[in-house]
TrEMBL record:
Gene3D superfamilies: 1.10.1660.10. InterPro entries: DNA-bd_dom_put_sf, MerR-type_HTH_dom, MerR_fam, Tscrpt_reg_MerR_DNA-bd. This is MerR family transcriptional regulator. It comes from Photobacterium lutimaris. One of its GO terms (molecular function) is DNA binding.
Amino acid sequence: METFKISEMAKEFDITTRSIRFYEDVGLLQPKRQGSTRVYHRRDKIRLKLILRGKRLGFSLAEIRELFDLYDTNQSATQLNKMLIIIDTKQAALKRQLEDINVIMTELQIAKNKCHQALNIEASDNQPEP
């Protein structure tokens, strides 16, 4: 079974070893130990990838832990329904953010166009007359 050191994980995901230890402290990662050395497996690598992706998407560590807990246990209908609620809630929030981003991008493009127009007018005003 392929194993990884904490330094290898940190380098691969471009994060600090301190961040990885923090995720371990809060229960999101559970590497094996060989003496005082942490030994990470493929499962830990996948979980770290999901943690980082979840954070980028706006999930809190508590939400990520809850999703991991729901996934790791025997998935009853109650747990799956709860997971669906969490996913639906996050999808709705991300959709609102995407709409906000699109509005801001449009407004920024309008402002950029106005700046270009002003610069073109200014440039033509500063040209010597023939």
